[in-house]
């Protein structure tokens, strides 16, 4: 046949076509030849001469479909309400499949004739003139639209009622009575019938079915919840509700379009959880305090998707952790308060961290609560906030204990582990500068008195602190390490220098030369002291050596920090004792005599009363010297204990003096206070220099933000610093407002 | 000998001794460092000129580089020479 347009008899051709499409739409067997003939018939109608008959074909086809659907409508209703759904589904399956084939048969007009009229995608998306009824649709779409108008419109509400009944029966476990496939197919037909649309595919489904379904289900959930509530048992209720939600979700999967799943869960939660929050909360406190993991986990799962519902649970957990934490560190007593403090806190922290992971799935809200609780426990000030917080000091001591040589019976790996855990606590401390002060003092002592367990551990710890707080925070600590290594170089050079000059010092000499500003040694408590002559040569030689190497530097000896190792040769067994310089000087005086008065010793050594007392007492306490009275007065006679004996031949008698005295703690606190003032003033000047003019509150806020890394400043302190800066004429109040400051260049 | 000293470990601190408290160029104290350095100490040393004036080494080097003709001490305008006594 030719593709050329020619004159066609519409009525005759349409009769043929009509016969075939009736077959197509009812899924009858159509031989290939007939299909091909009809295909070309449709083509020839569309391109007919002298004018195209496509519009007429379209109108006739539409009318045919309308009539067909009307017939089907009757058939569907034939068997009454009981079989309505089943019949509907049967004819829908047939019709929708047939419509697909029909669409292919009309391929030519679909593509050439109708596409032209259709809106482009762009018009669709940006919504130009809304589709006006006169427009033609592709045949497949037309068929679906005819079905919607001719079948769903008259039958819809009856179908939905039946469907809802079916689902209710499914809920009641009478599954055998309902044709699951038909129900699901019918429900999905509401979606498929609009599937060709680019927008609002689900509109019909949502309006016709989903909404009534959700409302009905909602009522059902409400009744269910009311029934469960009568038991007055929260944990049972929660279990039932969770089971119910799962069940409903399963049902929704079985029957509904997937877009509804979320909505079903939400409905369920609204009616069974959100509406009964106060009932759930009533058990909250008991569950948290009893740490009933299963209940808590159920509670979390129920509450997490209800907006804002978790906050009560979160707050309760927070309070609970806080109480537990405070009771873990309250009433600590004894020597090792710092160890129990840190370890108890860590136990609490770990326990609840794990619980949150387990029970609350590591939810951020609860992690936040844990953080808040820990930081309020760790920064808790006893006595209604009047006493200072001791955590920084205790934590520093804890680290000190671990890093000191004396910690026996723990492996290096364990120490590492414990140190890295102490960082956890460190991160919560507000007053990090206080910790730094204590830590650096203890570090200085460890380094100078050669008490460090391992340099690697020390450095690792400092790196951890650096990671947590930044370079500024640890720079001073690093400088101490630098000085240690510089000093060991210096010792080597000094020994070479001695060898070259052939000098014997008579003792093993070592030295630490420290940079004055870098070490927290207390403002140079240089006490007068007459150096024992045995040391004079060494000291002089070293000073000569040092001044030769370094120009313009002044050395100050810190005798109270020097250590000596002595061999005691006057006893039955030889002992090797480590003592401080002052103790050594006292012992050396007994070379020629066996007893001396306190006054004599003090005069010879030119020690001040306080220093003498401390060191003499330490010698008496360790029984190396014997005193004739408890109290050491200037006239008290001290004599060498010739019968001294000790199980160990090598020991120290420095411990008593190295202890942190209460004055030292206070001193540390005061120096922290001073540092803070300087820090705050510097921060204020920096801020004002860049801002020029700033309101009081804004300034305070910025200062707080800047200093947060190392401590939490008090507002009165900031105010005082601002006042001080106004007095020093760095700042002034602006003339028109007392609440505003300006920077004075 | 009743008591013999086997070892002695001395501890001493060092400080710059300069004839002024502050560097004449950057006005920062000699105990601290020049404005370009972060930490005082061996990394930011002091130097003396033959005129006996003292500066942070970094400060005087910068000053000398900025002088095209004569290298003079910024304090006394005498010719600058390092004092390597």
TrEMBL record, chain A:
Please state what the protein is called: Cullin
From TrEMBL, chain B:
GO CC annotations on file: anaphase-promoting complex
Q: Name one GO biological process term.
A: anaphase-promoting complex-dependent catabolic process
Where is this chain's protein located in or outside the cell? Nucleus
Q: Which Pfam families match?
A: zf-ANAPC11 (PF12861)
Q: Which domain of life is it from?
A: Eukaryota
> What keyword terms does UniProt attach to this protein?
Cell cycle, Cell division, Metal-binding, Mitosis, Nucleus, Ubl conjugation pathway, Zinc, Zinc-finger
Q: In which pathway does it act?
A: Protein modification; protein ubiquitination
Offer an example of a GO molecular function term for this protein: cullin family protein binding
Q: Where is the RING-type domain?
A: 34-77
Role noted for this protein: Together with the cullin protein ANAPC2, constitutes the catalytic component of the anaphase promoting complex/cyclosome (APC/C), a cell cycle-regulated E3 ubiquitin ligase that controls progression through mitosis and the G1 phase of the cell cycle. The APC/C complex acts by mediating ubiquitination and subsequent degradation of target proteins: it mainly mediates the formation of 'Lys-11'-linked polyubiquitin chains and, to a lower extent, the formation of 'Lys-48'- and 'Lys-63'-linked polyubiquitin chains.
What is the annotated quaternary arrangement, including any partners? The mammalian APC/C is composed at least of 14 distinct subunits ANAPC1, ANAPC2, CDC27/APC3, ANAPC4, ANAPC5, CDC16/APC6, ANAPC7, CDC23/APC8, ANAPC10, ANAPC11, CDC26/APC12, ANAPC13, ANAPC15 and ANAPC16 that assemble into a complex of at least 19 chains with a combined molecular mass of around 1.2 MDa; APC/C interacts with FZR1 and FBXO5. Interacts with the cullin domain of ANAPC2. Interacts with UBE2D2.
Family indicated by similarity: Belongs to the RING-box family.
Q: What is this protein called?
A: Anaphase-promoting complex subunit 11
């Amino acid at each position: 046949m030719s593709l050329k347009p020619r004159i066609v008899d519409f009525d005759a051709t349409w009769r043929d076509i009509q016969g075939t499409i009736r077959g197509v739409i009812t899924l009858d067997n159509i031989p290939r030849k007939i299909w091909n003939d009809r295909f070309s018939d449709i083509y020839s109608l569309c391109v007919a001469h002298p004018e195209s008959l496509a519009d007429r074909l379209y109108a006739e086809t539409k009318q045919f479909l309308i009539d067909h659907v009307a017939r089907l409508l009757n058939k569907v209703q034939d068997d009454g309400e009981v079989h309505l759904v089943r019949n509907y589904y049967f004819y829908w399956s047939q019709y929708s499949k047939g419509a697909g084939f029909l669409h292919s048969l009309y391929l030519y007009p679909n593509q050439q004739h109708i596409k032209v009229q259709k809106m482009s995608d762009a018009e669709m998306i940006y919504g130009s003139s809304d589709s006006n009824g006169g427009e033609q649709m592709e045949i497949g779409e037309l068929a679906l639209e005819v079905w919607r108008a001719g079948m769903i419109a008259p039958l819809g509400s009856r179908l939905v009622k039946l469907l809802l009944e079916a689902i209710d029966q499914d809920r009641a476990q009478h599954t055998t009575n309902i044709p699951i496939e038909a129900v699901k197919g019918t429900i999905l037909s509401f979606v498929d019938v609009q599937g060709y649309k680019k927008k609002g595919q689900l509109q019909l489904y949502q309006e016709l079915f989903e909404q009534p379904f959700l409302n009905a289900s909602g009522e059902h959930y409400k009744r269910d919840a009311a029934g469960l509530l009568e038991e007055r048992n929260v944990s049972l209720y929660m279990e039932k509700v969770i089971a119910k939600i799962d069940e409903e979700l399963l049902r929704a999967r079985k029957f509904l379009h997937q877009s509804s799943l979320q909505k079903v869960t939400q409905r369920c939660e609204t009616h069974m959880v959100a509406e009964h929050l106060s009932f759930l909360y009533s058990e909250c406190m008991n569950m948290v305090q009893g740490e009933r993991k299963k209940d808590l986990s159920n509670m979390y799962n129920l509450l997490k998707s209800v907006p804002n519902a978790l906050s009560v649970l979160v707050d309760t957990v927070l309070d609970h952790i806080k109480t537990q934490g405070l009771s873990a560190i309250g009433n600590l007593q004894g020597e090792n308060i710092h160890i129990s403090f840190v370890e108890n806190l860590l136990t609490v922290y770990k326990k609840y961290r794990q619980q949150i992971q387990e029970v609350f799935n590591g939810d951020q809200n609860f992690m936040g609560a844990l953080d808040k609780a820990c930081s309020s426990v760790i920064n808790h000030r006893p006595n209604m906030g009047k006493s200072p917080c001791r955590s920084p000091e205790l934590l520093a001591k804890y680290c000190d204990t671990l890093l000191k040589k004396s910690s026996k019976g723990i492996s290096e790996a364990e120490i590492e582990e414990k140190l890295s855990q102490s960082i956890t606590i460190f991160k919560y401390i507000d007053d990090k500068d206080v910790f730094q002060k204590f830590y650096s003092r203890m570090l200085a002592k460890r380094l100078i008195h050669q008490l460090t367990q391992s340099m690697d551990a020390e450095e690792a710890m400092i790196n951890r602190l650096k990671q947590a707080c930044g370079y500024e925070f640890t720079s001073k600590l690093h400088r101490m390490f630098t000085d240690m290594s510089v000093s060991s170089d210096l010792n080597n050079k000094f020994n070479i220098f001695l060898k070259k000059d052939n000098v014997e010092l008579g003792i093993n000499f070592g030295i630490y030369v420290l940079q004055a500003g870098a070490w927290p040694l207390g403002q140079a408590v240089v006490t007068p002291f007459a150096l024992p002559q045995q040391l004079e040569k060494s000291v002089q030689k070293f000073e000569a050596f040092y001044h030769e190497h370094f120009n313009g530097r002044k050395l100050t000896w810190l005798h109270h920090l020097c250590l000596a190792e002595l061999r005691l040769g006057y006893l039955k067994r030889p002992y090797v004792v480590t003592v401080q310089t002052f103790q050594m000087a006292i012992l050396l005086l007994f070379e020629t005599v066996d007893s001396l008065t306190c006054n004599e010793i003090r005069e010879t050594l030119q020690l001040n009363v306080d220093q003498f007392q401390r060191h003499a007492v330490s010698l008496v306490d360790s029984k190396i010297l014997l005193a004739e009275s408890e109290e050491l007065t200037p006239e008290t006679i001290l004599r060498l204990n010739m019968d001294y004996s000790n199980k160990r031949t090598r020991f120290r008698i420095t411990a008593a003096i190295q202890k942190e005295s209460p004055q030292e703690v206070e001193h540390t606190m005061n120096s922290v206070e001073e540092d803070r003032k300087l820090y705050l003033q510097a921060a204020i000047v920096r801020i004002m220099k860049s801002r020029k003019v700033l309101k009081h509150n804004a300034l305070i806020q910025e200062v707080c933000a800047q200093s947060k890394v190392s401590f939490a400043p008090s507002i009165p302190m900031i105010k005082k610093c601002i006042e001080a800066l106004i007095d020093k004429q760095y700042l002034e109040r602006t003339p028109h407002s007392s609440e505003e400051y300006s920077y004075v260049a | 000998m009743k008591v013999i000293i086997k070892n002695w470990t001395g501890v001493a601190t060092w400080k710059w001794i300069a004839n002024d408290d502050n560097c004449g160029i950057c006005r920062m104290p000699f105990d601290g460092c020049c404005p370009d350095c972060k930490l005082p100490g061996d990394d930011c040393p002091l130097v003396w000129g033959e005129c006996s004036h003292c500066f942070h080494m970094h400060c005087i080097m910068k000053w000398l580089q900025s002088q095209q003709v004569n290298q003079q001490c910024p304090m006394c305008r005498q010719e600058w020479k390092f004092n390597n006594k």
